[in-house]
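Record format v2
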Amino acid sequence: MNDREIIALLNNRDEAAIEAIKDRFGGLCFGLASNILADRRDAEECVSSVYFKLWTSIPPADPKDLTAYIAKAARNEALMRYRSNSAKRNFSAAIPLEELENCISGSGGAEDAIQTKAIAGAIEEHIRRLPSLERGVFMRRYWFFDSAKAIAVRFGITEKRVNALLAKTRKELRRYLVKEEYINE
Amino acid sequence: MNNSTLDISIALGDMDDALVSEAANASAQRRHYLPRLISAAAVIAVTVAAALVVPKLIKGPDDDKTAVIITVQPTQNNEPTETATAEPTAEPADDTPEATSEPTPLSTGSAPTSEPSVTEAPGVTSEPTATAAVTPKATLTPKPTSLTTPRPTPSPTGGPQPTPEPTPVPTTEPTPTWPPVETTGEPGPGPEQITFTSLSAFISAVQAQEDPLLSGIDCYYYPAELPSGAELRTITVSDTDIDLTFVTTDMKSYRLIWYRRQSPDHINDIANNEPGQWYGNVYVPDRPNDQAAINAYFTQYGVLFRVVLSPKCGVEDAVNFCSVTRHTI
């Protein structure tokens, strides 16, 4: 079933839409949630909430790219849970977030939402200009929170190479953010 | 970890769909490579084998290749040297995944940013709801006469937890006679109420609006029946409240989760729940015939309840939700 057919089912309030979403995107949602939340039950909860949000948000939403829409929904949901629970538990996302923190430290706290958005936008701009492999590895690590090992398997390269690419990309990103004055040296 | 890092990471959730899709499908691209690599490897293997074996076959005592060719393949005119000198590495070299490919920036023109309100994923811009002031703990009322023996783990947030008495009744067939215990001071179900014994009956009645008490009630659900392992015994609706009683039917544990929604987006503030205990709006029995009762008053945004089987069932079987809203509140 393609994206438009699934969205049509959702628009018609047809429960088969949830089945179709689970078939096509269940692995994506659960993988993303598990990468961030670590605990299987939390991840299952998260995925359930994502299905529910999709059911309630489409319509009126009419996503042009359903994969991205669902991935974003799952990521947002998992990160919200991460935020509310992170003081009490360990999570898989902690390590990649710390890596990212080293990369963007000096941003002055990014306390206001506008600056946060601006930095995120600059990161996106930088990612867009990366070679495809570096871009894919960076996205899988810091957007999907995959482990280096999983990324290595996915792209058919060694784990060592993944770590080297990530380190190089972080370094370049930091240089870019400093140059554009988003963060201090 | 600095909160701003998390904020920035969350803000990255707004990233262009094209970038997200590309990364999400990275595995699919690799899968495309795999069969091509395998077939390329097969071509190489066959060719190399031919290069090694054929010359030996054709090498006669007098090294007269032409004469041997006639012997091996008398009906063909193939030149054996052509086979041996084929170039099998040309195709695989093209098929291997990109190592350090040239920069291939995505087009910025394709970003569907002109309609953020349409393409934005749910929850992208919403504030975290962890601080929402929902206190369902006080109304979650495990029946003391049940076999419920909540684990002693204390609540991480210290809310008033239900404290079922550890006096199990040695009956294996609970009857739906227990009324939910009202502990919130909210008006309980009065004489004006209607009771159903299955979720599907309730849903059908709501859809048919067959009772004035159901007017203004809207519900959506998935699926219509609870997962095996949990059985809904009664669902009672009054003007202001909805009461439900559940019972387990096997050794699988399930979690019963419900929310009194305080806003349209308020469905996920069940932070800090731990399996194997009563915690707030999450109930996790761990034995057959455990019973659970919910008494919830409607908000204008309704009540959501959900049964989640865990942990033995896969995520595909683990979801059931039903949201009930009374618009007339």
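Residues 94-179 of chain A form a domain with the Arc Repressor Mutant, subunit A fold (CATH 1.10.10.10).
Chain A has two domains: 3-85, 94-179.
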